[in-house]
Amino acid sequence: MSSNVLAVFTKDNLDTYLKELAKEFRKLNGAAVHAEIILIGGAAILANYGFRDMTTDVDAVIHATSYMKDAINRVGDKFDLPNGWLNSDFTRTSSYSAKLDEISVYYKTYSNVLNIRTVSAEYLIAMKLQSGRKYKNDLSDIIGILSEHQKLGHPITLEAISSAVVTLYGSWHDIPNYSRDFIEKVMHNNNYEQLYRSILWQEKLAREMLIDFNSNHDDAVVESNADDILASLKRKIK
């Protein structure tokens, strides 16, 4: 039975788990049936960039037969991963868009049956803006992506990000106001590395504040109230 303890996923071990997943799926389903998984969030960051070392969950869009669930569980049992270590829960959040199938890009194929796709830079940023969680890595991930593309000599423009937002969500209407202000300020900052460290520290502090609050309030924090609770805690500190 898979563990309920949080796992740490790195670029290397994620590759191992996906290889094993493909093998298990092929055993269950045969060589003629293919599956497709679109990695998003932290897993897509790990696959495409070097500024993050790990993530604690693997969010994805999964297109496969029902045997995929069994394959996921088998890999989880083999490596003592948490239940649902690979999941599509995010498809029930505001960050999800049906357009992800269209805009995703090819990454790798395992065992000739499992095609892995990811999400490219401007679309990842759009999704991070949509979620805009100050206690996760949403904001630091945005800066990390911008920084890596700037170093490569292929800077991402605000126009490209705006186009991605419109493609995924129709308009900027549902993007949180904080996220809108954040991206405008960030795009006018030339020192991404310093800003990255600063935002990363702020996210860590916010996460610790919520964990401490949760431990004293019977796990009262959920994603829908986390920002309000965090804002209240910060006001008390001030």
Task: Please give a quick description of this structure.
The chain has 10 helices and 5 strands. The chain has 238 residues and is α/β, with parallel strands linked by helices.
Account of the protein in words:
The protein is an alpha/beta fold and 238 residues long. The protein folds into 2 domains: 11-119; 122-237, no CATH class. Helices cover 55% and strands 10% of the residues. Strands 3-2-1-5-4 form a 5-stranded mixed β-sheet. Helix 1 packs across helix 3 (67-79) and helix 5 packs antiparallel against helix 6. 32% of the residues are buried. The mean pLDDT is 93.
Which key features would you list for this structure?
single chain, 238 residues, alpha/beta, 2 domains, five-stranded mixed β-sheet, 55% helix, 10% strand
